[in-house]
């Protein structure tokens, strides 16, 4: 059954435009509030946000919806998505909500929902909430005596800071490490530099002056050039780039060279495997992770299990099959010993812990495999178009797969958050990779006009 509002990571779109309007946010609050009202206790919902201007519109609309459904609302202000996931069970809340469009520009916003256990909601629950929204089940108001209340939790940031610091091994400090941290003018602009400084690092913060418009603008995990330059300029040991809601991280070594999610997962997986902490016999990643990572893990007797794109699908497989590490090449890294969702800051701290314990450089501990040549290109299409159903596109995909054979991979998919067709290929032969991607992209572009 096709869903009207929810995509692969909650609801997302341009602010003040369907589906990211105040009216729909109100309906989400009512519908989710009614769905999660079970039992006769006072029901609670935690609402956090990033630094986008439109958060001032979405937050009160959601609050009104939940209050009208009889839920008490706890507002925590700008905090990373994983902080909301952590605080939800910690505060014995029935639901957690994060207002963010992650790595998207400020014009966009989104709504992510977490259950009482701190995990993102399943497709089935999101579909049920949609049905409540569209069938009027959210419209029946509770009696005045049952209306909820709203309050701000002043120490929310402090709680998250202490939680993150406690993931570092007891007695280990980051003394002597010079760290550049780019917070993307987003949700972690206060907490990330604080955590690193309190753990002993020499911190060089950038991207920490949000104005409502500059989130992810030429900064953060999708635009790492500034972070890389600062690492070299300041003679730093490592750089950290978070995205707008800090659930993903990309790093750089001491030479300013980028370390993506695959390389970071390899680093942490090896460390955990050596210490006996790694469960499941490997890690869980997505179809986008590099074939070089898979081959590298195989040499060490570890497996790489692939899921559909989206950290929620990674987490589902981890939970179902006993893995405690997984993530995406884009920097969503889930360490389930600590968190229920991707946490860029905690993942970065695991890498910094390896540096501190081994006294080795980031280029040595984080470049343990040679990535296969990989190319990803996006083709934008109009909403409602179905370019992957075009016969010429299907023929181009089939021909490209035959050319790659057993020597590489071709992954074609629709983005779950934007009207894009993503075309990715990888193989040992870089020229072949470019050729097959160009062939498929040309066919898709012709199909979309």
The description of the largest β-sheet is: 7 strands, mixed
CATH architecture of the largest domain: 3-Layer(aba) Sandwich
CATH 4th-level superfamily of the largest domain: Alpha-D-Glucose-1,6-Bisphosphate, subunit A, domain 3
CATH class of the largest domain: Alpha Beta
Number of DSSP helical runs: 14
Percentage of residues in strands:
15-25%
Q: Structural class per helix/strand content?
A: alpha/beta
CA(first)-CA(last) distance? 28 Å
The proportion of residues forming helix, as a percent range, comes to 25-40%
Integer-rounded radius of gyration:
22 Å
Low-confidence stretches: none
User: What number is the mean pLDDT?
Assistant: 95
Description:
By secondary structure, the protein is an alpha/beta fold. The protein has three domains: 6-154, Alpha-D-Glucose-1,6-Bisphosphate, Chain A, domain 3 (3-Layer(aba) Sandwich), CATH 3.40.120.10; 160-365, Alpha-D-Glucose-1,6-Bisphosphate, Chain A, domain 3 (3-Layer(aba) Sandwich); 374-448, TATA-Binding Protein (2-Layer Sandwich), CATH 3.30.310. 37% of the residues lie in helices and 21% in strands. The protein contains 14 helices and 19 strands. The strands form five sheets. It has a seven-stranded mixed β-sheet, with helices on both faces. Strands 9-8-10-11-12 form a five-stranded mixed β-sheet, sandwiched between helices. Strands 17-19-18 form a three-stranded antiparallel β-sheet, with helices on one face. The radius of gyration is 22 Å and the shape is globular. The mean pLDDT is 95.
């Amino acid at each position: 059954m096709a869903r009207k509002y929810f995509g692969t990571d909650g609801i997302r779109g341009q602010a003040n435009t369907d589906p990211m309007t105040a009216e729909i946010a109100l309906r989400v609050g009512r519908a989710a509030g009614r769905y999660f009202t079970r039992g006769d206790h006072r029901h609670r919902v935690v609402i956090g946000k990033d630094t986008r201007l439109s958060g001032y519109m979405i937050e009160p609309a959601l609050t009104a919806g939940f209050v009208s459904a009889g839920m008490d609302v706890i507002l925590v202000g700008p905090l990373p998505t994983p902080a909301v996931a952590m605080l939800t069970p910690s505060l014995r809340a029935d639901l957690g909500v994060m207002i963010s469009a992650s790595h998207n520009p400020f014009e966009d916003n989104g709504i992510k929902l977490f259950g009482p256990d701190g995990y993102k909601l399943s497709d089935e629950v999101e579909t049920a909430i949609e049905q409540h929204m569209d069938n009027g089940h959210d419209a029946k108001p509770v009696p005045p005596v049952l209306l909820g209340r709203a309050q701000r939790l002043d120490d929310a940031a402090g709680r998250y800071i202490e939680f993150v610091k406690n993931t570092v091994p007891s007695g280990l400090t980051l003394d002597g490490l010079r760290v550049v941290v780019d917070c993307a003018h987003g949700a972690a602009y206060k907490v990330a530099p604080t955590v690193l400084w309190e753990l002993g690092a020499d911190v060089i913060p950038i991207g920490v002056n949000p104005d409502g418009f500059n989130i992810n603008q030429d900064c953060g995990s999708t635009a790492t050039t500034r972070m890389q330059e600062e690492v070299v300029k300041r003679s730093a040991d490592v750089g950290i780039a978070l995205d707008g809601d800090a659930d993903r991280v990309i790093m750089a070594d001491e030479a300013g060279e980028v370390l993506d999610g695959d390389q970071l997962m390899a680093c942490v997986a090896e460390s955990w495997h050596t210490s006996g902490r790694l469960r499941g016999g490997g890690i869980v990643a997505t179809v986008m992770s590099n074939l070089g990572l898979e081959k590298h893990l195989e040499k060490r007797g570890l497996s790489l299990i692939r899921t559909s794109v989206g950290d929620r699908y990674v987490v589902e497989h981890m939970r179902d099959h006993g893995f405690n590490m997984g993530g995406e090449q884009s920097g969503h890294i889930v360490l389930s010993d600590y968190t229920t969702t991707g946490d860029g800051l905690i993942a970065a701290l695991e890498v910094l812990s390896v540096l501190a314990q081994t006294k080795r450089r980031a280029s040595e501990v984080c470049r343990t495999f040679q990535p296969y040549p990989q190319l990803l290109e996006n083709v934008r299409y109009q909403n409602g178009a179905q370019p992957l159903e075009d016969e010429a596109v299907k023929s181009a995909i089939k021909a490209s797969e035959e050319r790659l054979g057993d020597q590489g991979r071709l992954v074609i998919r629709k983005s779950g958050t934007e009207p894009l067709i993503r075309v990715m290929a990888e193989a040992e032969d870089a020229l072949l990779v470019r050729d097959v991607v160009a062939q498929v992209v040309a066919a898709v572009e012709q199909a979309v006009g």
